[in-house]
Each structure stands twice: as C-alpha cells, then as structure tokens.
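With this grant's support, we have paired protein sequences with backbone structure tokens. One protein thus recorded is set out beneath this paragraph:

_____
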Amino acid sequence: MKKNEHQSSILVRQRSREQLYKEGKALRDPCPRASHADWKPPADRVDSIEILEASNKERLPELIPVRYGRMIPSPFVFYRGAAAIMAADLAHTPATGIRVQCCGDAHLMNFGAFATPERREIFDINDFDETLPAPWEWDV
C-alpha cells in the first residue's frame, strides 16, 4: 500500500468547537451536575473495613500497618489512602460514560515534567499508586 493510499483510508472526522461543546453538554442530560449531590449509601453497602482489607491482598504485609498508621491522623488522610472505598461508593452514581485513568489524588504536588520517547517535555500527573480506569466524574 502506498503512503497516500494508507493516509486516505484513515477517516478523520473534525468537529468544530461548537459541535464538541454541544456533544459535551448533551452528555450532561442523563448525568446533570446536580445529580452528584444526591448520593446516599445503598442498603447493601459493603463495610469500609472489608474493602480496605480486600485492597491489602496484593500489598507487602509488613507495610500494611504503616499504611494504616498514615491514615489515622484525620479524615482527609484516611480518604487519601482509601481509594477502594471511594470507588465502591461511587460505582452506582450517575456517569456520562467518559472514562479516564482516575487518580483521586490530583493535587499540585502530584504533577511534574517528563521527557517523552520523542524527546519532548510534557507536564502530567506523576502519582499513580492508587489509579484505576473510572468515570471522569470520580476525579473531579
């Protein structure tokens, strides 16, 4: 296949900024922003301690007490170490269907500059210890 033949076989659909805005706004119809304020724990909610214990299965056993020790000081640091609980709580909430590699810890100190294989510099998140593919709403 010649180069031009290959290039012409790839269909690139370019949409205007207005079209992209309209498509994005339409995603909110089944998932309005206000719907995220209506969360209530389901009757069959799994116990948070059970979720934490299950998340320890692939961890080094000698570091689990260190993890728990770091989670004790405040609710904020507890939830920083409890991504599995957050995921379980949010699993049945409204979502647009847009999926991302969700971090849940996207504060300024978890970003940095990196070199790409093409020797370009990019700025991106650098803390991937508790990430998972998830709806983008979970990471906002």
